[in-house]
Design goal:
610 residues, alpha+beta, 3-stranded antiparallel sheet, 30 helices, binds zinc ion
Length: 610
């Protein structure tokens, strides 16, 4: 069936196919549904934007179907529609409620189609398009479409209320308030360049502009439900100004909200109000992913979350920030102790330490390695327990044995030690140790062995550090330093010769003689001696007991020392002794110096003192 041109109307640019169908139906005295049935299609298929039905409608009415290309709302899913490539949801379209511009309607009535000329614009169905860009006035609702038979029957609704519409007082919008409406219009016309905001579906971009703008205008806790269409329109424009500047501007806005809230406040709803609700539990739609990501990043930058925490629907994954409290919870350590250490290590500024533990934030990534060391470090008492040190062995936690990892800004007891350092030290001093076998006797703990040798225990530990001791055992019933057992005989061997044995050099100074003489005295047996390993350099050498040296000095005296004792010149004294026929104790040729027995000198002493 082709309608006689006299009965048809001219389709308008921007008109919805449903409006066109409705207008022609009214002209031929039918409802839109009846007319669609008459031409073999359903009105619902026109409302849903089915291309084949629209083609039939156009053909019947002598219209070019391509005129509807950018003005057909195509139903693409249960609640989604496509308008010229832009996505909208049922909630963001007016659909049942018909919005019109009274000025446009008045103009339409002057067109060639006269009383059937008032047509429905596709853009009027977008909720966020709240004004007529041509006339600058607010769109007005004409009815709430409850009669299912008349749903979307645009011309019928308009004609039923024509007087009200034409008589409605026009509400003009401030001139600079159309930014969002113009933006949406450009997206539908296909002239908007790509941008961060336009990466979001049109309905989500518009909604975001509106609620962000509403928050800017009326605060985070403003009740959305009580806002008028005019409020939303102006909010949309302000929100667009912010969001069209990109995600950085939105982040800055969130930072402002954070700063504006009291420092002690960290409830998300209290700080970000409805925005937080809308992007979290109220609405899980992926369409808002871009804007949700900005809020999420901002939250992660301003609050400490653990890797398993869900923030706006997504697990944190890698922790960005720690607070003193979150570190305490995660590590099970005392928060005050952690704060002292954080301050000492310079991770937390001194000025922040009076804040609540939740609010003292620091970068968990940059400080990861240091935090790990710090958290697992032991203070002095802990390190003593870890190494199982005895009451008097605290010196082992100082150089030259061990050194704290951190001392700055900490009391001595708080000095920090790293477990690997302690482990390495223990491994070093026990490297020659084997477990004590049953039947092995005579081994003593370090302290006991030291007192047995009358030498400081530190020297015994040094022998262990240098690996000198070969007989080292570990008490299977103890651990750490306390478990170390040494052989007191071996210890004495190393430590006592230092006191009791005299090598050539020391003998030279004791007797004030030459090296040759000192050696000759020991080698000829004039002074008892033996060959032994030197305790320090481990070389074989001749050593004399100090007691033998003392006995020698009491019995013998060299001509040099005697000269000093009697106050004579050495050569003069030598001549005098020959004169007096005092015998030398040893062969002067062999020894290299004349020695005399003090007992044989006694009768002549008065003759020697001049
Ligand atoms: Zn208008």
């Amino acid at each position: 069936m082709i309608l006689h041109p006299f009965l048809s109307l001219s389709a308008q640019a921007g008109e919805t196919p449903a409006s066109f169908c409705s207008r022609v139906a009214l002209k031929v005295g039918r409802s839109a549904r009846e007319f669609a049935d008459d031409i073999g299609i359903t009105f619902q298929s026109i409302v849903d934007g089915v291309a084949d039905s629209i083609a039939i409608l156009a053909q019947v009415c002598g219209a070019d179907a391509t005129i509807f290309d950018r003005s057909t709302l195509v139903r693409t899913g249960n609640r989604t529609y496509d308008l010229a490539g832009q996505v909208f949801t049922r909630e963001t379209l007016t659909r049942g409620n018909v919005f019109v511009c009274p000025a446009c309607i008045a103009e339409d009535l002057d067109s060639l189609d006269a009383r059937y000329g008032a047509y429905g614009r596709a853009q009027w169905q977008i909720e966020a398009m709240r004004v007529c860009l041509r006339h600058g006035c607010l769109l007005i609702p004409t009815c709430h479409d409850t009669n299912p038979h008349r749903a979307h029957d645009f011309a019928w609704h308009i004609h039923a209320r024509m007087e009200d519409i034409l008589g409605a007082p026009g509400v003009m919008m401030p001139e600079a308030s159309n930014a969002l409406a113009q933006y949406l219009s450009r997206r539908i016309e296909g002239t908007e360049p790509s941008s961060w905001l336009s990466s979001m579906p049109a309905f989500a971009a518009a909604k975001s502009c509106e609620f962000v703008g509403l928050t800017i205008r009326y605060g985070v806790h403003a009740p959305w439900k009580s806002m008028t269409s005019s409020d939303w329109h102006q909010a949309g424009s302000e929100g667009y100004a912010l969001l069209s500047a990109g995600p950085g501007a939105l982040t800055a806005y969130f930072q402002d909200l954070r700063r504006a809230a009291p420092a002690t406040e960290y409830g998300f709803r209290a700080i970000y109000g409805r925005i937080f609700d809308y992007l979290s539990h109220d609405n899980q739609s992926e369409a808002f992913a871009s804007i949700r990501k900005v809020l999420r990043d901002h939250l992660l930058e301003t609050r400490a979350f653990g890797p398993d925490d869900l923030v706006l629907g997504t697990a944190v994954g890698t922790r960005r920030l720690h607070s003193v409290r979150s570190l305490a919870v995660e590590t099970g350590k005392d928060a005050r102790m952690l704060l002292r250490r954080l301050r000492a290590l310079g991770i937390v500024a001194k000025s922040k330490t009076r804040m609540q533990h939740d609010r003292i934030l620091f970068d968990a990534q940059t400080n990861a390695a240091l935090l790990d060391k710090m958290v697992n470090a032991l203070d002095r008492p802990e390190a003593e327990r870890y190494l199982n040190l005895g009451r008097t062995q605290g010196y082992l936690l100082n150089p030259p044995f061990l050194a704290p990892f951190w001392i700055e800004g900490l009391h001595s007891a708080e000095h920090l030690f790293l477990k690997p350092d302690l482990d390495a030290f223990l491994a070093m001093i026990t490297r020659n140790a084997t477990p004590l076998q049953s039947g092995e006797e005579g081994f003593l703990r370090i302290g006991k062995a030291a007192s047995r040798s009358q030498r400081p225990a530190a020297l015994v530990v040094q022998l262990l550090m240098f690996g000198r001791l070969t007989k080292v055992r570990l008490d299977p019933d103890s651990k750490g330093v306390d478990a170390i057992l040494v052989d007191p005989e071996e210890v004495r061997e190393f430590l006592n010769p230092m006191a009791n044995l005299v090598a050539v050099r020391m003998l030279m100074s004791e007797l004030r003689c030459s090296q040759n003489t000192a050696q000759a005295l020991m080698e000829t047996g004039a002074l008892p001696s033996r060959i032994e390993r030197h305790p320090i350099n481990r070389l074989q050498c001749r050593l004399a007991e100090i007691s033998d040296v003392e006995a020698f000095k009491a019995e013998y005296v060299s001509v040099y020392i005697l000269a000093e004792e009697v106050g004579m010149h050495v050569r003069q004294l030598g001549d005098r002794l020959i004169e007096l026929a005092v015998p030398t104790a040893f062969d002067p040729e062999e020894i290299g110096t004349s020695f005399y027995r003090r007992s044989e000198l006694l009768p002549f002493m008065h003759k020697l003192r001049t």
